Amino acid sequence: MTMECRYCPLRRKDAFSPLSQDEIAFMQKFKAGELTVEPGTPILMEGSNAPQLFTALSGMGIREKTLANGERQVINFIFPGDFIGLQAGLLGEMGHSVEARTHMRLCVFNRSDFWNLFKTHPSRGFDVTWLAAVEEHFLGETLATIGQRTALQAMAWALVKIFQRGEALDLVTNNQMALPYTQRDMADSLGLSLVHTNKTLSKLKDRQLASWSDKVLQINDLSALAEVAVMNLDKPQPRPLI
Amino acid sequence: MTMECRYCPLRRKDAFSPLSQDEIAFMQKFKAGELTVEPGTPILMEGSNAPQLFTALSGMGIREKTLANGERQVINFIFPGDFIGLQAGLLGEMGHSVEARTHMRLCVFNRSDFWNLFKTHPSRGFDVTWLAAVEEHFLGETLATIGQRTALQAMAWALVKIFQRGEALDLVTNNQMALPYTQRDMADSLGLSLVHTNKTLSKLKDRQLASWSDKVLQINDLSALAEVAVMNLDKPQPRPLI
DNA sequence: CGAAATATTGAATTACGTCAAATAGAGTGG
DNA sequence: CCACTCTATTTGACGTAATTCAATATTTCG
Fold first, then answer.
1. Cα–Cα distance for residue pair B126/B118, rounded to 1 Å
2. B115 exposed, middle or buried (CB, 10 Å; 0-12, 13-18, 19+)?
3. Which of A200, B19, B24, B232 is the most exposed place for a label (fewest CB within 10 A)?
4. Which of B87, B117, B146 has the most A C-beta neighbours within 10 Å, making it the best mutation to test the interface with A?
């Protein structure tokens, strides 16, 4: 039994901007179904021309890209509400792979309907572009992180970003949230070695800023952490949910 | 005297996909004017809510982002045909600054007309999204470069990418093209120090793969360079021109 | 319970950054 | 055209943040 869009619990989260009744009704028609996957399941493959697009409804995943020599870059972490497959939908080829890290529920759309969305509901097409702009914005920040921040600054930045996303999705309780990734995932997302990632996390823990173990992230002092990260602490603004 | 879109010399380049007569006529109305700037001129400021969007018509520029501690990350290099200001247009805030590095001519659009573009010409809205997806794709590759490639691999990758963009724009003659940036720009784009950038370029020159001096890039062996870069050499597909 | 990930720690190594100084151009003004 | 300044490039020496190697816990899971 697939959830009806108008009852979608995601819509109510702070993270997302509201839709009109009309738009919700349209999305219901656009929605082709739901997909449920287990941890480790590949959802989209780099270079593939997938016929389907997704929105993550629950669970977490990862966007990653592998070089010919086997090195892996984690592009970012996928949280509920994230739109998956834009590149396949438009360019006809994914620049990265997407894989589930927990049990995930995904809203499924047909790529063939995608153009129709722009034509009949330009406001929703506008929203897709909005999301693309948000992603571009985020990737620019990530670039600055990997390129210019030290390991400690980068790790602090990453944890703050993750925590803020968690907050907007009501995933945080008592300054804690589930973070079901491995240190290897985190290392590959920041361009650090696994060993140094581990030691950098220890350092943040020693300083009583944040700790992440047993798949639980705890932030003790968000503003101090942001200070270490050389970043500004401003709330992410609401974004559309596709 | 501003150029009419239908005579725009950019449209004919391999880099871009063709437009219908109708679409060109519409773009003509959408176009608010032209802007000419000198080297060093800031075009958009990080954090600003600019009322205007641009497409680069000629010349080159740079997208960059500066951290609170003064470190600078070059997000990418701006070539003719690049769309500028998507983030301001949608999110109301640029995530990076844009600055001219040569004399540049820019096509100017009003942000207030932007929504209208999606509404009345969904195909053009679709194209804007296409460009956003291309950018996202590129930033993902850049992330993998800074995060996973060595200095030599990264430099080789950057030069191949630039050269390919140049080729698609007919900027290459005799395996040479103008590349009016400084080594500092390049260093900040790859997250390397200036000194190491210089030494890495020397190494590529010693190996007879590529040389870049006096603002001219020369590629001697593109496929060998791509091999050093651990990358695949496939032609960039045509993309829309806004 | 055993096997395979994952996490942790110490020691050795290195790719890269920093410092410093020389050289080379590019632009300005007299 | 020549001083002058400013920016960009180049090179050598040295320092270090981060990688790699290696070994040992610890957890996860079939």
1. 8
2. middle
3. B232
4. B146
Tell me: the pLDDT tens digits for B119-138? 999 999 999 999 999 999 99
Task: Look at residue A65 and give its three-state secondary structure.
Answer: strand
β-pairing, B216-219 vs B210-213, is: antiparallel
Residue at token pair 């049990």: A103
A-chain CB neighbours of B191 within 8 Å are 146-148
Tokens encoding A213: 């173990």
Q: Considering B142, B159, B194, which residue would you say is the last residue of a domain?
A: B142
Distance of residue A139 Cα from the nearest chain B Cα, in angstroms? 6
CB-CB contact of B115 with B75 (8 Å)? no
What's the pLDDT band for B4 if we cut at 50, 70, 90? confident
Classify residue A238: in a domain, yes or no: no
Q: Answer yes or no: do B108 and B223 share one domain.
A: no
Q: Give the CA angle between residues B110, B114, B119 to the nearest 5°.
A: 145
pLDDT tens track for B72-88: 999 999 999 999 999 99
Count other Cβ atoms within 10 Å, centred on residue B76. Answer: 22
Whether residue A69 is predicted with pLDDT greater than 70 in this model: the reply is yes
Question: Looking at this protein, which amino acid is placed at residue A138?
Answer: F
Quickly list DSSP for B72-132.
EEEEEEE-TT-EE-HHHHHHSS-SSEEEESS-EEEEEEEGGGHHHHHHH-HHHHHHHHHHH
* Within B 199-218, residues with CB less than 7 Å from strand C: 214
- Find tokens 């400084």 and name the residue: B182
pLDDT digits (tens, 9 = 90+) for A150-207: 999 999 999 999 999 999 999 999 999 999 999 999 999 999 999 999 999 999 999 9
**Three-state SS sequence of B34-76:** EEEECCCCEEECCCCCCCEEEEEEECCEEEEEECCCCCEEEEE
Query: B190: domain range?
Result: 149-228
Chain B partners within 8 Å of A129 (Cβ):
86, 90, 118, 125, 128-129, 132
Q: Please list, in sequence order, all residues whose beta carbon lies within 8 angstroms of the beta carbon of residue A96, skipping any fewer than 6 positions away.
A: A46, A63, A64, A65, A75, A87, B140
State whether B25 and B128 are in the same domain: yes
pLDDT of residue B3: 73
**Residue of A136, A193, A235, A239 for testing the chain B interface, max B β-carbons within 10 Å:** A136
